[in-house]
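Why run this: before we spend reagent on co-expression, it is cheaper to look at a predicted model of the complex and decide which construct boundaries make sense. The entries below are exactly what would go into the expression plan.
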Amino acid sequence: MQLADRIARLSPSPIRQILSVIDQPGMISFAGGLPSADSFPQIDNLHVEPALLQYGPSEGEKALREQISSDLAKRGLHVSPEQVLVLSGSQQGIDLVAKLTIEKGTLVAVESPTYLAALQVFSLFGAGYLPFQPREAHALLHNTPPSLIYTIPTFQNPTGYCYTTAERKSLASVADKQGSILFEDDPYRDLVYNECERTPVCAFIERSSWVYQSSFSKTFAPGLRLGYLVCSEDLYPSLSWLKQAADLHSNRLSQSLVLSMLKHRDERLAAVVASYREKRDAFSNRLNQTLAPYCDWSDPDGGLFFWLTLKDQYTLDTQLLLQKSLQQNVAFMPGTAFFPSPIAAPSCLRLNFSHASVAEMETGLSVLAELIATGD
Amino acid sequence: MQLADRIARLSPSPIRQILSVIDQPGMISFAGGLPSADSFPQIDNLHVEPALLQYGPSEGEKALREQISSDLAKRGLHVSPEQVLVLSGSQQGIDLVAKLTIEKGTLVAVESPTYLAALQVFSLFGAGYLPFQPREAHALLHNTPPSLIYTIPTFQNPTGYCYTTAERKSLASVADKQGSILFEDDPYRDLVYNECERTPVCAFIERSSWVYQSSFSKTFAPGLRLGYLVCSEDLYPSLSWLKQAADLHSNRLSQSLVLSMLKHRDERLAAVVASYREKRDAFSNRLNQTLAPYCDWSDPDGGLFFWLTLKDQYTLDTQLLLQKSLQQNVAFMPGTAFFPSPIAAPSCLRLNFSHASVAEMETGLSVLAELIATGD
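The model came back. Tokens follow.
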């Protein structure tokens, strides 16, 4: 049996592996980026138009593409509906862009740390990494130009960091100067608890090619698996053909449901954001009461995560910590998997605050504090 | 801007391009493998469990995997539910298997002609082709062993051919002897109008690795984008990780809808098959009245297509024929795109009979006959 060489670089997603244990009864999960079930829309008495059950267009439903184009204009990104490609979740956008740009040895600039399932796909296709810090994107100019720059500028996963206006312009200018394709991943932007700059970096691009993508998973419902990308016109034909080849087109029932929910987008978002803001504040509170002696962090202005760095004297192997905390029914994401070069990664934890109840936060964080305190 | 080398091998799917014109008013389409809208299930008063809107398992919903495993046992293929991977349509299975097995220069044995969107994906990843005829699979033994053998043994697309028992065993034995991975694509097997052998080729495999996939698009609803694969145990971890990386998991609402429809599978299939059998017979009738002087074909025992080969004296460029027939509001699939080596392809047409009404068949086939007769 002969497999493709890339399979030697294939790894399971650590987060998907943890998701498979968090359904166990009694488990307190800070692991996934799971929206709170309370935030899901009510879907009742649904009549499905038979026409929706037929094959549909690869690019997505016309009305949804128009709605997305018009919503993006309000964010400062002006594209025609013909530049919108509906996706089966934004993970698919990562797969399509990787196919478009990455082969063995392709240089990809990524924030360090960054979204682990993006690293999973980029590595599968053979990427080499050029890590950078959001505050120092200009340092990329001193290196070999990367083919692709992958960024999550707004409430970054895992750090929660939000780029300033100057940092956004600086990153766009690096892409322009080096002729790199800028790939902006923006699933969290609507989950904002303190106002801050959220104009897409792609809106500042002047010459280079770019792809911007977002998701309906965090604000509507992940189980519907729907997201979208928009891109510079030069990339659209290839990306839409790659989409055809990947799954012909996205689920039409999901597209219809999301379109109807987008009509009440603002009311819906206001409620979700208010509830998550409360949860963030409660989590921050409990963190201060439990983990402050052992870790450093900043409260995030948006998104779904706290990113904790262990203080020097409490540094430990967070993978081992996870094994022990799972035995006490507490799940979280060890930081290592988020680093393009995990060997030199600092000792970090990513904690999701949207899924657990306030009582669970209390219990779960106390368990973590005790395990870290005893170095056990 | 630097794209991956594979993008030079990327092409749009000819069928998706035609699908974009067949929605025009008045168009008679024999082009796609579109199920008849009459065959779609009624979905009314649907209540969606909020739990279904959360992220789900990459492998698919447990109850659906169990149902698929039990249905496959009735087909002669015995696998545990843990060997089932739910897909976002079976096109996705082609993408995953290509990632698993194909890189530049990988030798893939394919029937000639075969499903064009499989060729699209295999070519993107850099496959070289070893074409074979269903009746002569043993000829593959005289060649360099292919890494992958792709086959549609039951109501093949585009030819409609159904392998005999001996031919199924012969192909399985080729895979076993050469250590090739057998990839069986089986979307049409339930659309059977004359009983014939339909045991999966994979059921005859003794040693080699294999992947078997099927779809709910042809018997339930393509718009829900749901299919599945099962495979030999050695391949399952890699394929499930590739699935994670491609779209995390498949739509949970679709999975729930399909599972509930599978409970009434037999009644539903009986009605669909009866209606398609009538359509096949009507189409065969009209073909005999219109195209018999110009083409050869066999009535298919199942599936959705008639495959016509133009008689020598009427040979013409079917791409040009399509341009002309579209002007008269008739769409079909030229045969060329189905051949791994299109240059030497004979002059063929694939005609779908499930979508058009009987009156449309009459009109559409007369248009084609006239265009072919005048060589125009």
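The radius of gyration of chain A is 21 Å. Residues 40 and 220 of chain A are 6 Å apart (CA to CA). Bring this page to Monday's planning discussion.
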